[in-house]
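Lab notebook, bench 4. We co-purified these components, and the gel suggests they stay together. Before we commit to crystallization screens, I want a quick structural picture of the whole thing.
Request: model the full complex, all chains together.
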Amino acid sequence: MKALVHITLKPGVLDPQGKAIANALTNLGFQGVNEVRQGKYIELDLPDSDRASAAASAKDMCERLLANTVIEDYRVEIVDQT
Amino acid sequence: MKAAVIVFPGSNCDRDLMVALEQSAGAAPTMVWHRETTLPDVDLIAVPGGFSYGDYLRSGAMAARSPIMKAVVEDARRGVAVLGVCNGFQILTESGLLPGVLMRNRDLRYVCRDVFLRVEQNDTPFSNKYAQGQVVKIPIAHHDGNFFIDSDGHRQLEDEGRIAFRYCDSAGLVDNRSNPNGSLANIAGVLDPSRRILGMMPHPERLSDPNLGGNDGRALFDSILNALS
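Here is the predicted assembly.
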């Protein structure tokens, strides 16, 4: 199983990098970009054979290392190995 | 006073910290490599600045999970004093010994210059040689020093007098202009509830000898000696 982990800043936490990206997009002529929030994407190749246990171990990894839950949210998506 | 300095791959202020501690304590601290799993019997554990593990994932995230940090957390819980400077502060927040987080600087720039700090608490093992409210000049050098904590956590730090230092101007005025990195409430250093763990972004070890252009950091190390020996 693969776990696809998306880590994003919690709503309300200032994201200066996202702001800088939004400014750059505007400078390039892209109109109407209301907000940009930058995050991280991590792919985990896991030994688990069922989705529930893969999801549970990925969640544990997020809690203990991958995300800093003081400022970050995470979302785990489990996909079959291709 | 016996001290240990933790050394991670990518630490670069470990020797400066060693020199500053030796200058005040008269004895050289033990340097402890990150792969060790036990610490010598010490009064103070110092976690130095630098770029441990190349700041991978988040500043301090990897170091906080390295083998030696288990021993640091255990000793800290037993009451051994812990000082984290710069990356050391980031490591202490990542390991849960201190609250909050150090985010990317407000202006997205690495900032390396002398700043002024106001001593907010002088009844700690780290600041008893400073006067309450004293303004000191200490350098900063970081990219991720923007202290953040949720509003409940912030209130708790204020109510319990656990904000050790705030960024200010040369006259001691704490405002947005004297805030070099966007830190919440100009927070430059925080204490744990026992007041025996201090994390700070500024580098007292870099101005603790007049030959370095200033001596305001020296009192921090003299305070530690005073409190712990």
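The longest strand of chain B covers residues 111-119. Worth comparing against the SEC data before the next meeting. Chain B has one domain: 3-228.
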